[in-house]
Design goal:
alpha+beta, Ribosomal Protein L22, Chain A, 2 domains, 5-stranded antiparallel beta sheet, 11 strands
Length: 209
């Protein structure tokens, strides 16, 4: 089974990333699906989405959970029945989860040129135009998007705007970490963010400070 990477940021947190290379039939083996999971799977038209969905159940198994241990609230945020916190992400051939005693968020995205066309919707694009070339801009913009998405998943409050309410501190690529803040409804929360790149993809995961 292609468990791609395991990261342990601290004693209470684990990040697992899966590269979805198996067939759907193969991925159905070794896991038990709840009735809700079976229904969700049956309604997925895309094979890659079904394979990604199944791979996440394998990731859950790797950290000691079964499908019945996972549920979603009205906002679509995942939860574990034992009270631990979980966040989930899926992008093309990669899926990932982060599980911790405290609040966490994770996002995986493919690095694509189209992110430059939507950058002004979630960040101040002008500050990235001084980078060496288009590839460097795409890489950095993707990190910023992943970072903001991971924070949004933690905060999980309707009305939060990536552009207006979430700020990511500038960073050097080689540092592989940064910080972020959410300003919303008079409150301010701060987060630590780690990021990594692999095979043209970016992953960021975050925890409150």
């Amino acid at each position: 089974m292609p468990l791609y990477n395991t990261i342990t940021p601290d004693n209470n947190t684990k990040v697992l990333i899966w590269k979805v290379e198996e067939t759907e039939t193969s991925l159905r083996e070794g896991i038990v699906l709840s009735d809700n999971c079976k229904n969700r799977l049956a309604n997925m038209r895309s094979e890659i989405h079904r394979r990604g969905f199944l791979s996440i159940r394998h990731l859950l198994k790797r950290v000691g959970y079964v499908a019945h241990d996972l549920f979603y609230d009205d906002l679509g945020k995942p939860h574990l029945r034992d009270g631990k916190h979980i966040s989930i992400s899926h992008s093309f051939l990669f899926t990932g989860i982060i599980v911790s005693e405290g609040k966490v968020g994770i996002d995986i995205e493919k690095q694509r040129d189209k992110i430059m066309r939507i950058a002004n919707k979630y960040t101040t694009f002008e500050s990235y135009k001084t980078l060496a070339n288009a590839e460097a801009i795409v890489r950095k913009l993707t990190i910023v998007w992943c970072a903001k998405e991971s924070l949004y998943k933690i905060y999980a409050s309707p009305g939060v705007s990536f552009l207006q309410h979430i700020d990511i501190a500038d960073f050097f690529m080689e540092d592989a970490q940064t910080t972020g803040k959410i300003y919303f409804n008079g409150d301010q929360t701060q987060y630590h963010i780690d990021f990594l790149e692999f095979e043209g993809f970016t992953c960021a995961y975050a925890k409150p400070i």
